[in-house]
Amino acid sequence: MSPAQERISDAVAARRAGHSLDGPFYTDRDFFDFDIEAVFARQWIFVAVEADLPEPGDRTTVEFGPYSVIVLRDDDEGLRAFHNVCRHRGARLLDPGQASGGNLVCGYHKWTYATDGSLLHAPSQAADFDRSCFVLKPVHVRGVGGLVFICLAERPPADFDEVASRIEPYLLPHDLRRTRVAARTELVEDGNWKLVMENNRECYHCDGHPELLRTFFPTYGYTEADVPARLRPAHERYLRADAEMRATYTGLGLPYGLIEELAERPTGFRIQRDALDLAGESFTPDGTAACRRRLGDLPTPRLGHLSLHMQPNAWFHVVGDHAITFSVLPLTPDKTLLRTTWLVHPEAEEGVDYDRDTLLKVWTATNEQDARLVARAQQGVGGPAYEPGPYAPGEYQVEAFCAWYLARLSEELQR
């Protein structure tokens, strides 16, 4: 074990359950590099939606830590993923972002690859050059209900198939495979990736989200016994809305029950269909739908929201008229990319079926507010006065995330 790994091992062993992590977990370069290898290079990572890749040849790239990966739709309309490294002299094969087209052409020496990764053309090689020895290095890729995940490990976590089989019944009625990307934002937050994830896993701070709290109940994460007096009126509204939504879900045959396995397994996840406040249709100031065309063929817009959280880097909200996906990608110890994508019905037209500003308003504001909170947290955990503090009962999902994360570090330390 290297000196850096010994430091990390000691920190893992010393961590006090129910308390935030020690400062180096959020600030130290060695810890960050180990996060990439123990978590992002081992686990299934959410990176795209199938709507990013509607046609053969469509591709997108994703980057985290030192890795860059191409995800594409091949000529047979299947999903493929490859390391974004030319097999000639290692140049980045494609620039960041999305593109359409057929073959993959390196911008350095024009080595050309098919969408299945095979090398088609390498100019001016020797007569005995064997192109079959220089295929692109593949990466595991899976589509789950219209969401795209990759795994860099040679042997991905074996439980992913089971998790996919449990969450797909919740996703499929919304037909996310047949959607269109209405908008995407990329926000670089001034904080460690774990602070971004932890912030999303609790509503203890939700009074800082006035736009979101028009429809999102502020009692998220609280048990009946823990709801404070100031939130009791909202809780009573929630109970009434929840009873109505359960009747709707049952009548439509939609799965809605909570499945929460955040810390117990390699592919930690949480999924639930739940009520929204006011009109109960969407994330808008009055809770009414932001888009006139609904996802799938569901007969009513009043469906509350389907919430999915997946370790280590993603959460999702699906409402009757659109879906929002969030992907967290670590850049440096104190910089994290939050990529947010809004999906609408494939035939929905901007300016006709929806107003773009209305569609984006709530979560754009919420993301920006969260980014400021994450930056404040990063400043604090990097200071000499910081010491881990206790989680409140409503922050139990933050504790679950930390427990899951530390288990992944322990597994890597034992390899």
From TrEMBL:
Hydrolase among keywords: no
InterPro entries noted in UniProt: Rieske_2Fe-2S (IPR017941), Rieske_2Fe-2S_sf (IPR036922), Ring_hydroxy_dOase_asu_C_dom (IPR015879), Rng_hydr_dOase-A (IPR001663)
Cofactor(s) needed: Fe cation
Coiled coil: none
Domain Rieske: 44-150
Gene3D superfamilies: Naphthalene 1,2-dioxygenase Alpha Subunit, Chain A, domain 1, Rieske [2Fe-2S] iron-sulphur domain
Pfam families to which the protein is assigned, alphabetical: Rieske, Ring_hydroxyl_A
UniProt xrefs under PROSITE patterns: RIESKE
The entry's keywords: 2Fe-2S, Dioxygenase, Iron, Iron-sulfur, Metal-binding, Oxidoreductase
A GO molecular-function descriptor: monooxygenase activity
Name the record gives this protein: Aromatic ring-hydroxylating dioxygenase subunit alpha
Organism: Streptomyces antnestii
